[in-house]
Amino acid sequence: MRHYYHRDRLVEVEQLDDVVAVKVGVDDRGEAVTRGSVLGTSARAALREADIDDEAADAFARAHWVFVKPSQQTRETVAAGEQPAGTESVGKVIRRSNGRIGIATDLLNVQLDPSLSQAEAERELEAAGLDVVTRLNFAKNLYEVRAAGAEDALAASEDLHENRSFVFAEPSFIEHVPQRSAPTDPRYPDQWQWNNTGAGGGTAGADVDIERAWDRTTGTGIQVAVIDNGFDAQHQDLAAGVGSTSGFYSDGVVGTTFTQSIVGMPDSNHGTFCAGMVGARRDNGVGGVGAAPDCELMLVACLGDTVGTQTTLARGVAYAANPATEVPGADPADGADILVCSLGPNDADWDLTSTLELAIEDAAANGRQGRGLAIFWAASNGHNVSVTKDEVVSHPDVIAVVRSTRHDLEDNAARGPEVELIAPGVDVLSTRSGDVYGTSTGTSFAAPCAAGCAALALSMNPALTRDKLRDVMRNSADRIGGVVYDAAGHNDDYGFGRVNAFEAVAVAAGHP
Fold first, then answer.
1. What pLDDT, on a 0 to 100 scale, did the predictor assign at position 452?
2. Which of 78, 163, 342, 456 has the smallest set of CB atoms within 10 Å of its CB?
């Protein structure tokens, strides 16, 4: 473990053992004059073991940086403070707490006391053994320097922290700075819920700030259960993400039975739209994209004709949390990580049966191997009806979601103290049955939007309990609407605010 100072804060990082980054020289044709194999053996495997993704390593390779386990000759040359033949720079590979790597050389940026003249500042630099590379003219006494006499920039940062002539001394890491993650899907520009530019009469920024979240995660490893009447599970934008635990309930002479398969699953535009809001695939050349495009979808179809009992709905909730409740011998660990449902009457009372209540409470408490299952549910679309009229969505273990517009305003859905979050749900675009796409409005689509964002947050910290994830979503939400939020940060129309995927991911990862 190594340390350096960043914005006057001591930072701890990991230096990868026995890995050296070397920038090789190139000839007039842009080809390397020295092969990495001359310097040592490839360290790609070591990078993968350290969870360094190939995208970053490939980017460094394109910039002529190679990662090697150094040969004895390379090790001796570097230890002597010399450059191996045919190379331009050598550095240590540092992994920061956010998982990103950087190459530490002897380069660092320093600022000296602004009260010093330029001549005085440069005398201090010389006294500290620092060689000026560039004088940076956008702030006084700001320089890029080389700490030729120090072990590396990290050591120099620690040494200079106690020197009162210096405002700061921060290593200048060589790092991968990729383009912001924007999907290439053709209908993505129509999905204002993910990136609202203000086009179409909207308000720029009235979205869930998801592109910055996608720079860190796309939901890999998280399974989201979507309970609805039916799905086009073979939709071109969904099929690749539909998991083997998907299934459906059907009524027969002997009662309601469950089938763990998508073969014979009833279809529903509503369910297909909801599933697309969560997990439509990205960069596949068709349609748009979902909030967590690399999550696994557990599609659970019940009440296929929108008629049935809460018992079937309860069975769906229980199955999502623990597949063994319907499939004998199934592994409870195959249960979902997040559940979302957008079924329920509008602008009407909905009584909660004891059976559905037990299913909700058991899933919330015992799902995810005891960590608890976060349950998102669409509140009523009724115009400003009391959310308490719906005993299902206002249950303490349910996260009630209402809908916002492209202007970051609530849209006359249910209201009250049990409203928890608000998310885009007016004229949003998603998948429709039959390999097509369209726009629609409803809390039904705000809820899977919020659930998908929660999947991104959970993927950053899968150990989060249900309650901790709920806190993350509340505490990271944006207080929109120009309305008053109470001392707890709640408003009856907006809940704890509009979902912010980027902030949720950052808070979940421990880096707000």
1. 98
2. 163
